[in-house]
Structures are given as structure tokens and as C-alpha cells.
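Q: What would this complex look like in 3D?
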Amino acid sequence: MNAEVTITINGSAHRLQVPPRALLSQVLRDELDLTGTHVGCDTSSCGACTVLVDGNATKSCTMFAVQADGCSVTTVEGLASNGELHPIQEAFREKHGLQCGFCTPGMMITAVQILERNPSPTEEEIRSGLRGNLCRCTGYHNIVAAVQHAAATSGGE
Amino acid sequence: MTTETLIGQEVKRVEDHALITGRGQYVDDLRLPGLLHLALVRSPYGHAKINRIDVSAAANADGVVSVFTGADLAEQLGSLPAGWLLDEETAGMKAPEHPPLAFEKVRYVGDAVAAVVANSPAAASDAVALVEVDYEPLDAVTDAEKATADGAPIVHDDAPGNLAFDWSVGAGDYEAAAAEADVVVSERIINQRLIPNPMEARGIMADYNGGTDQLTIWTSTQIPHLVRLLFSLVTGHPEHKVRVVAPDVGGGFGCKLYLYAEEVICGIVAKQLERPVKWIESRTENYVATTHGRDHIADAEICGTSDGIVTGLKVHVYANLGGYLSTFAPAIPTILFGLMLGGCYKFENLSCTVKGVFTNTTPVDAYRGAGRPEATYVVERMMERYAHEIGRDVLGVRRRNFVRPFKRGHDMPIGVTYDSGNYQGALAAALDKFDYQAFRAEQRAARREGKLLGVGFSTYIEICGMAPSAVAGALGAGAGLWESSTVRVHPTGTVTVFTGTSPHGQGHETTLAQITSSRLGIPMENVEVVHGDTERHQFGTGTFGSRSLAVGGEALMMSLDKVIDKAKQIAAHEMGVDSKQVSFENGTFYVEDIQEREIPWGDVALGAYWAKNLPDGLEPGLEAVSFFDPQNFTWPFGTHVAVIEIDEMTGETKLARYVAIDDVGNVINPMIVDGMVHGGIAQGVGQALQECAVYSDDGQLMTGSMMDYAVPTAEDFPNFETGRTVTPTTVNSLGAKGAGETGTIAASPAVVNAAVDALKHLGVTHLNMPLSAEKMWRTIQDAKEARRARRSAAARRGN
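A: Here is my prediction, written as C-alpha cells for the whole assembly.
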């Protein structure tokens, strides 16, 4: 009953046997032990599970793993490279953009997409871009500041 | 690095590296070989008798290992306790049985009736659908006031009238004050039910070793040691054979502050099967199975003179407690509510009665602020209601009634003693940031253009630093509320700090390391802070009630002092002087005026363990344990200012600006304190503008998912403008009062006061939360209709 899929995850190709009902989030967490991708709801509301699928921020709890066949997926574990934190990771630490840390992986992935599409977003554009990701600790204040900081340190204005 | 300066510095958090790289370890990230998965069958009825449960189809399903009903495990599971019981004689306290798996009757939608254990989460949840439960639905009641009416359905047979308690507190003589007052204003004030929504729902993993009888429970909790204690009391499994671990915890806000049914179920099932078992709460489950907050119906009355002196406040509350008593439920609407009703004001006559009521809803317990937001909402709403009634400015009336600044205790008529306060100072600091006169001019100008602006204030106070154990015990607490620490100095001079507090986002690893580093003069990276594991730290009370620094931080200071005292003895012996001559600063022991007599911290640490040159009779090693039991609560305060903008055409109500001045005493890490204030404000504003848990009359939760319950998003807020005044507490040597709850406590009255201010010219005197667009639109239409009717009546009279 399992289906074979090939998914490139954080740069490495994985050939996997997955049940058709398995969600991408489940395969990332349970098959590949990439537990940085969190699941915070069951209605596609919270965004904690957000990963990049072919460059698009995607709620991995709302996509079957079989739909990701042939795709390239980036999770929070793939943000840093060569031991260097991604600017968005640096910015979340620098601006205290996280408290309990549960929403943080999805929040950072979404922020990466916001900045890829618009390197110099306004505060309003950042808030609008983050509306699919819920945080209960920060009141979003320092998350917005972190995205602004990442924009500034990555060359945006 | 100069370590002395770390107190008060914005040190970046040591917690963050793991969390931003995906290496956090929340319960669902933990794995064990042979792990089984548990799922619960939950009642779809608000109130029903259980006639029969047939588990045969589920038990025979693929991948299912076992199915347990409440009847199967009644003996082992015991009854969940209420950890805070009010006086039976004066409050008529009733604490009915609370079986973790219901077996005779279900009392709310979500009440668990059976547990399915399977090889995978999918097999477990599939088999839940195969459990056949024959329910006989009963009439339900969800509203606390209606539940006390004659003929209402009875939730617990041993709680007549659905009353869990009928509690009262007071000071002076309110009725006499009201009889003499120029003005008496009353209002029914609803503080609606909220769903806490930590981003990580709850999760539990349990493992049992039959060879040693050792049971380990990993759980997403704020109180690992209390979970161990209560688990042991409930199940009879010996406390020293239970280890409870709180790994990374994804937010709590009060709702992870109890012994939950699932903790008992997972522990007992793991023991029965001798296999590790994991239960992960889905969000939909979380909405019915994890405690809710607030849900008060308050009838409030304020009285005073026509020129602005408040003389009394009377409040009667129906507090909805849900289907069972959760661990701290009786304390929240009583002690943490009634004792707060004096606010920061001088009035001496106060009457408060609270009926705690069972209903067919999810149990209600602490949610960030816990009783104090409800009290502050009543006090701050009624202050403005009174000011409007007598036609005076809301700030002038507050100033007139403020308690005068004090540094060393102020006795309140209700019988509590505030530690230190300067309410005028916080208000003045807020007005430095917020130009009140300019706003009033802007408001008038905006109204001419059809835009409705309003400003609201909240000059709040709160009761924090839980808690002096003797006081709490006299008020009904079933456990001490002190805190403990251990400071273990290693031979190389690095330090492990063990704390009984249990953070879930508050940054204790950073804050406690800042204190340790500064006190010992060693770099922060040489300090490790350990929490959340009953096997690593002997006992602790946990994290809630803004207590971790005010109580836990002081316990750490005590251990640091003890370690330094012993280290001084070792250093003095080495230098051949009396230990009284030895000073310690920046990691160096020295003797004043003798330059060459200096020993660095690391050498003394090594000497303590090498033990080749210790003073006579001194034990080797360098470690200290301390327990701090405060003599009083702490009383943070502040002034919050909200500006609300209402679209007259649509009723859409937006927070336009928010200024917060908080006084939490001394601050160790301003970045962390600001962050907590931001989050608290968001939750308070969320309550005021959009959050509300709604039940149908038959007990269905109508807001049962994140698609139905309006958790605020980034788009719902502006940036917050925060600031501080500093009035240190005398309750602990740090001078810290606690900062976890200020925003939630202050924000909802500020926002509602602002919305009422925006509509005051239409004759609106009160609004109940949440201020949804529909409610606001209707309010505006009704107010305009009423104004037209008044004008035409006046015109007719004029004719």
C-alpha cells in the first residue's frame, strides 16, 4: 500500500516508502527525525509546520507526503549552512523574536519567504505576510522586529 | 568579560540556539524503542449517563494493543484532586470525585471515557472511532448563573444547586457607604471564557521499568514536581519511584499547571503494559480537554461623592468552574480575585461574594493573570464608569483616589499589605509618552470627520510572587508555595544551578545565569541552569503567578551567598587570614589593603574538592541548597493606555496605539521583561477585541477549533510602546516583583475603556467583550436610534 516517493530534503535526496495518508509533516518528523518542524493544530491555522516546498512556504500538515514527490523541501534544520546561522535565525536571536520557541521554525521559514519576495518590506507588509503563523508568546512585536532586522542585515532597506 | 554589569543588561538568550536550529526537544520530539501510542475516546455530549461501552471492535483492530475503560482502571486511576480547597464551613466547599476516565456519567464534551493503545498514532486514532459508547443524554447547563437556578440540571449529585462554593470577602461597610453616597452606579460585567492556546498543545510520554518499579513521565507542564506529588497521591505509586520531566515546553499561560487526567492515564497504562506510551493532544482535543480561563458574570456597583471620591465597591460573581474542579480552580476566582478588588485606590468599603459553579463545560482554571485580570477589569471599568457618571475626567478621578506613594508596605482595608507602590509615578510616566490633551483634540477633530477614536486607561495592580506558604495555606492551598535552588560548583569553577521553577518561554536559563555570573564573577557560559526534572532537582513549586524570579530567583541568591561564604572560609585559610577579612568581587577573593593576597574563584573551587588544605572541620565540596519562602506577595503595578479606532460604517474596531508603563521592581534582563509584557498585552487585547469561547445550551463548544476561535495574528496589533518605572520590592533582596502577567491584567480594561470613550457621545456607557465588528456596529446603530428617539421626544415636548 505504501507509495515510493523521492524528496530532496535540505539538499539531500531521500527515497522513501510512505503510506498514502501520511502527511508531509509526519514523514519529516517520524521518518526523517526532523523534529524541528512542529505541529500546533489540525486545521491549517497555526503555521508551526511551515516548510519551503520548491521555495514556497507551505504548511506541511496540509500536504500529503506523496504530493511532495520530486519536490525540494527546506526545513528549519536546513536554514543554517556550513555552520553559519541563516540571517533570519540570527535576527530572531538578536531581536528576541522567540520565547517558548514552538512557533519559531515555521515563523522563520515564512519570514524567509517574505524577504525573498520583498527584501525591504514595510512593517505592514511583514505583519500581513505573517498572518498565517500564530504565536502566543511574543505579541508578534519582536518577531516583526526580527524580520526587519534580517532585512536590514541581508541588504534590504 | 566584566560580569558585574550583567544585572539589568539585555543579554541574548542562551535558550535560543537550540530553538532556532530545530533542536528543541518538546514531548512529541522524544522517542523510545517499542513506543506505543495512546488516543482517548471523548464524550460528544455535554451531559450524559454511560450505559455501556463496547470496546471489542477497537480491541480487534489492526495495530491495537489494548483498550481500557474507566471501569477497567477505576481502582488504579483514583480521583483527580483539587489542590486548593476553600473553607468547608464558611464557603461550603464541595470537591466531588473526578475520575480520569469517566465511568458512570460524562460531564462535559471532551470528558474521556476510554483509552486506546496501539502501535502507531494512526492505528490508535482509527480505533477510537470503533469504540461504541451507549450514552443516555441528560439535560445540560453551561451558563453559571442559570446553573444556580431552581430546577437546573445537576452536574454532581453531591453539589446541590451546582455550587462548588459560596465565598465572600469584604472590608468596611459597603451598604452604609452606598446609602450615604451621592452617586451609585451599577453594571453587569461579563468576563468571557477564553481558551489559552499555548502553541504546543499538551503531550505526555510514560515509561515503566518493572524491574525497578520506576515510572518516568515526560509531560508538557509548568509544575513537574507537583505533578509527581499529585500523581503519587492519586495512584499510590510511591513518589520516590516516579520521575517527572518537563522538557522544552511550548507555552503554558496557566493551562499546564495541573495534574491532568492524561498524566495519570498514561502513567498507569505504561505500568499495566510495561511498555512506553505516548499521548499527543491534537489542537481540537486541546480545545475541550485542556482548561479554559475566566468566565465570570459579575454584578458590580461603585459608590462615591459627586466630586470624585470613591467610597465603596460591591461585586457579586458567578464563576463558571466547568464540569470538575481543576487543580487550582477554587483559588482563581476567590483569593486571586477578591483580594485584588481594592486596586490602587483608597476606598475602604468593599463587599465581594463569589459563587463557584459547576456546569457542563470544560473545567476552568488559571489563564495568564488568573483572577487578577477579572478583578482589574471590574475595578478599572467601574472607575471609568463612575467618572463618566459624575462628568469628571477619568484621570482626575483616579488621581484623587490613588493610594499615596509608599516604599515599605501599605495595609489595604481588605487585609493584605502591598509591598511598595507609586501609582502616580507610573501614570505620569505613561503621560510622558502619551500626550493626553493632544489626543483629546485629535479625537474631536476625528469625530468631525466621521472617525471614532477613544482612549482608555488601566492603572492596574496585581498580586504576584506566589507565595508566602503560611498565608496561602491559611487560604486553602494544599502545598507550600516557596521555591528552592541548588548551586553546585564544580572543581574547575564552572557552576550548575538547579531551580525548582519550570520555564516554558520565560528565559530562566538566561536570567538565572545572569544573576549567578554577576554574583560569582564568572562568565555566563560557565553557568548551566537545570530545571524541569524531578530527578535532577529535589523539589520545586514550578512556574506560575509571576513567581520565578521573585521567589525562585531569591532562592538562588540564598544558595549563592552560602557558596560564597564557604568559599571565603577556604580562601581565608589558604591566605592565612580570618574569613571576615576576605572580600569577594569579580571572581577574586582578596584581603583589603594586601595586594599580594588574592585567590581566583577557580582555585578556591578546586581547593574545595582537592581538600588538601581546608580549615579544620570544614567539609570538602562546594554546593548549597536553599528554600525561600517569601513573607509577602509582591505587587507590581503600572499604567496602560489604549487608543481604539472604530469604523462607524462597519463597526470594525482596531487597536491604534498601545502605551504600557509597568513597575515590576528591579529588572534583570529588560529584553526578556519587555518580551513578556508584549505577549501579555496581546493576550489582553485579544480578549478585549476578538477571543471568546462559546457553548451551545446543550454543551457543545461552538468555537472548537482555531478556525472558530479568533487567536490574534500579527495583523491585529500595532507595535507596543513599553516603558518602566522602578519601585523595588522589599520582599526579596533582588527587589524584583515579577513580570509575566502585567500585560494580560492591564490590557483588557484599557481597550474596553477606550472603546466606550469612543462611543460616549452616543450615550454608550458599557460594552461587553469581545468587541467584534458586529457587536460594535449594532451598538452604534442602537445608540443612534436611541439618540434620535430622545431628540424627537425632546422636539415634541418643545412643541
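A: To summarize the key features: Chain A has two domains: 3-78, 87-153. Residues 104-117 of chain A form the longest helix (14 residues).
Q: Very helpful, thank you.
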